[in-house]
Design goal:
The complex is a heterodimer of chains A (about 120) and B (about 120).
Chain A lengths: L2 E3 L4 E5 L4 E3 L2 E3 L6 E7 L6 E7 L6 E3 L2 E6 L4 E6 L8 E8 L9 E2 L3 E6 L1
Parallel strand pairs in A: 2-12
Antiparallel strand pairs in A: 1-4, 3-9, 5-6, 5-10, 7-8, 8-9, 10-11, 10-12
Chain B lengths: L3 E4 L2 E4 L5 E7 L5 E7 L5 E7 L6 E2 L10 E5 L2 E6 L8 E8 L8 E2 L3 E5 L1
The chains are: A mainly beta (about 120), B mainly beta (about 120).
Amino acid sequence: AQKVTQAQTEISVVEKEDVTLDCVYETRDTTYYLFWYKQPPSGELVFLIRRNSFDEQNEISGRYSWNFQKSTSSFNFTITASQVVDSAVYFCALSEPSSGNTPLVFGKGTRLSVIA
Amino acid sequence: SAVISQKPSRDICQRGTSLTIQCQVDSQVTMMFWYRQQPGQSLTLIATANQGSEATYESGFVIDKFPISRPNLTFSTLTVSNMSPEDSSIYLCSGASGRSAGELFFGEGSRLTVL
């Protein structure tokens, strides 16, 4: 069965600090997708990244970077030089589309508070 | 990416009433799903909305409580029936297209408060 664990419930950092959000997943499939979503206080879910299981290259997008390591079943998310606008709940999610488009299984989320 | 619109965006409801949430996507999606997010919690899948047939419900969710329709590829509704305060949640519609295997797009969510 699929499972996504985000062990950090809440994190507080001071503005301009770097912060890493952890995500560990479990799956029996060899083909799967991993995602990160951001949920700001307004409530909508904002897609940040999708990574397929065959692509272990790390990715950087501006202040965001992702470290995918199959050996440890982890897909961690780092925000560099954090800003107050980064304050949100961040969800890691997993999909196993082997039989077509399948719904995502979400972790419990990590609430990030960036303090000015 | 698909744009998914939901309405109402929020509502305050009385115990025992029912409310229908509408979800409209701007392009054809192969799959549509409804999620629930209880206060301070993660997202839980309620059901897969199937076009022209009964929805597929996850464990813990039943059709009598959460009837779902999907008359065509771009529209779906979720009804929360006989509401109680425990139903106070954000309900999110999501869709996936075959072009982006595994990727889900989400609506803005419908925040329901049941008094």
